[in-house]
Amino acid sequence: MKRIRFLLLAVVLGLAGIAQAQNIYVLLEEDFESLPLGPNVEEALQGDEVWTDIPPDGWFNDDSDVPGVGDPATDGVTEWAGWAFADKEWWTQAAEDQRRSEFTLGQGTVAIADGDEWDDQPHPAVPATGTFDVWLHTRPIDLSNAKPNTVRLKFDSSWRPEYDSNYHQTANLRVVFDNAEPIELFRWESNSDSPNYKNDATNETIILDIPNPAGAQSMVIIFGYFDAGNDWWWAIDNILITAEWSGIRAYDPIPANGADEVPVKTVMSWTPGDYVGGSSPKHRVILSDDLNAVSSGAAVVATQDAESFDATGHLDFSTTYYWRVDEANSVRGWDEGVVWSFTTESFAYKIEGVAVTTNATSDATAGPENTINGSGLDDGDRHSTRTSDMWLGSADGESVWLQYEFDRIYKLHQMLVWNYNSEFETILGFGLKDVTVEYSQDGVEWTALGDVEFAKATSTATYTANTTVDFGGTPARYVRLTVNSGWGVTGRFGLSEVRFMFIPAHARGPQPADGATDVEIGTALNWLSGREAASHEVRLGVAPEALALVGTVGAATFAPANLEFATTYYWQVDEVNEADATPVWAGNLWSFTTQEYALIDGFETYTDNIDAGEAIFDTWLDGWVNDTGSTVGYLEAPFAERRIVHSGRQSMPLQYDNSASPFYSEAERTFDALQDWTVSGADSLSLYFRGVAENSPQTLYVMLEDSVGQTATVSHGDPEALLAAEWQQWRIPYSDLAGVNLGRVRTMVIGVGSRTSPTAGGTGIVYIDDVGFGRRQDTE
User: Fold this and answer.
1) What are the tens digits of pLDDT across the range 512-528?
2) Mind listing the domains of the chain with CATH numbers?
């Protein structure tokens, strides 16, 4: 039977020209969480960080067709005079809900077109003077690596329409390829008589295939909400656009495209594209801080077979670099790669969280904290002339001093000084002049750096730091400034700002990020190395006060062994260089929590290439082979389910028909290698399933078989569960699988019905996703 279906599908695929093995990559991912939000404007519900109309970088929010736009008095409710980006909870409360809270897929900041709320303030009459029409354009999306007809758009949507003679609404989605005419992908209308009518759908995930043509280099997606007035809304969130890689150019660059804080001592790597088999060299690496030199191919730094390149010696601090990797082609010479970019780390960084004390009597509105809190500085580091942004004080009978304390010992690079900058400073001379600078590691033993003259301020609002004190990498936690004289003779002394810069000697930038959750068991620990570190001592444990040294490594990466599921780990990296004045720089304490379950099968790797045996039913055998009532996948491509998914982009559709013998239905996978599901403290299996309301009630079960043929079967306790059109997690304790060796699993079966007591049943479909093993997080 399977052979018959194989031949039928081969014909279908041949006619459809289905692409071969997939290699999915992300073109765009946007959840709007990085947008800075501001306060409400005309909505009554107060909030400091609740709303903006400024879209993500490169996007375009076209509100030009909103009646009255541009005049706050006649543009309706200002927050909604166009696509808005707002805190979902604030939006829901501001609008008195009206079913907006049903959009549970949207979280945090969401994109909203809300004609209903917009209409609550004066605006030109609708529809007499026009309708509420708004358009949200994505940034241009690079398609140069995408196979034709493989782009897929996924987003979460909340749509509530209304229709009468005055008020209605329409939404559409359009795509523009290479600045050509827009192509409409779908249209929703609120008129129930329209063939495009879409009823209430306040919480759904939309998945749409986009027909990117051969040769298209870029596209823009346009979300349109128009022909609207006082109806309801359309809100979107969690936009994900993917495609299949074209198989020509290198991809997955490390550092990632657009990365910042890249160490100047770094190894660049990539996943190779197609190149001529047997050719050498296979890759041409082009690197420069000049984009034109990279685009033209003039900045070749290596031609090689290796899939990495050590850029040490090629990189400077605080510089943006461009690079690409070309692949060998005996016909055309080289296939040019995509140009990527990254920005290197700075040589030194500002110390945050500085504390300051003084022995002086400070003016009430001009305390010493003003010298380290950034008050008076604009985005260009120009200081104001407002005296309330500075420090001013005096001390009778003793030298005035200011003492600064950091949160730890730093390798000090420089101190930048903005002197007292009142508009009358040229006359008053309150600014510091002759100053003794000292430093200390403990606040008890002090070392003099020397006497420094602080330059006088300019008494203008364009004043920038004009004194730099060089510490030369001195390790210190405290700095003291003792005033020997000022620029005047009044006995009062003032200072605007100081900024301490440090050379990063400690480990920083942990990956996984500090506090990360759901970290995979096999994840390597990575960090940005402290400057000049010769080795790295890694400490790890489950208690922050009891870390053990688990390794000393030469590179800024460490792969810990024997991590357990659902466990919080603490770790620290000490940077070591015996030749340094400070041989060990102790690191911060970081933490991460491991995943509850590791995937056995997430169903993401299956393709529509049955010639290569990559279809889902080539791995999960069904009734065509095992003579049960099951059908895995669909008869036409795509074979896996791509719209109803728990995570990722695919799930397994398992159709069951238990109306005829043998009265049960099974999907069966035999693993190429024996599976050990006892590692890392695992104590249970997990899978997600989802039914449909029209299903016949039947029992879902799992059967395992080990290497010597021992089996164990566990049934779900509720046959009605297959009628629920929502994802449900089924956890199966290992204690329910007694008798089978879970360290040597050969076969897994997911079935519907009962193989031990089969009786005639019904039909239906169940979706399976994210099958895994592990351990549940202890919630006590």
Assistant:
1) 999 999 999 999 999 99
2) 27-244 (2.60.120.200), 251-344 (2.60.40.10), 349-503 (2.60.120.260), 508-595 (2.60.40.10), 599-774 (2.60.120.260)
